[in-house]
Amino acid sequence: ADLTGRLGAIAEVLLTSGRVRKSYGPGAELALWSLFQKTPQGHEISASIASMNTALKRLEGQSLEQLSAAARGPGSYALTLKTSECQIVLRFEAAGVRLESVEAGAA
Description:
Elements: H1 3-17, H2 19-24, H3 26-36, H4 40-57, E1 66-73, E2 76-82, E3 86-93, E4 96-104
Antiparallel strand pairs: 1-2, 2-3, 3-4
Helix pairs in contact: 1-3
């Protein structure tokens, strides 16, 4: 059995519930977050953030023309960023953030 996966699941529940911060303070929460980042679940979230930042680099130097948010389901949301050159839709879910779509020349 992969114990790091189980540890990640337990840490995720403790972090998202706020129990660690309430019971032991922000220092304990930061320590658990650091440990969580070393688990498979933490690696997945880090990879999704890196992917999102790569997509957002495309927008550097452009002016935002439109910004909107939408619900995609329970606990799932989309953020649309539109410029004169492109439109990017980012999806936020419990498992992380992912690029939902990119349209070039979205005028």
